[in-house]
Design a protein that fits this description.
Strand order of the largest sheet: 1-2-3
Number of strands: 3
Structural class: alpha+beta
Strand content: 5-15%
Shape: elongated
Amino acid sequence: RVFIRKNESGRIYGITFIDDKEGVALNGSRLGKGYAANVFNGYFSNPANNPFLDETLYGNPSVCLEQSATVQPLQSNAEEGDNLIDELIEDMADGSFLSTSNDDWKEAAWQRKLRKLSKVNIRRRKR
């Protein structure tokens, strides 16, 4: 799902993409320039400049909606389709965005504190 923040005049100033299944919430600007609130504000405020509404590239949206109602799904089992998508994303990202071995933030904070305490603090006298 997507959470869009607008000011009183209707301008989009923030967009957050939320994946409830994985428990991830990402700010659009952190994903890249193409997902920033400014870009979506431009798309929604001026549909003429929205490349996703270009009928020459994507066809007429109403025709696509009518066709999608009659098309049979490629995957009969939705879970298999999800697994294939997950595998594809994992292969493309090479697993680099997945969680590392240190998922517990309390443990990570404790380790940082121990590292700071273990450093010898040598104070020199001012002459």
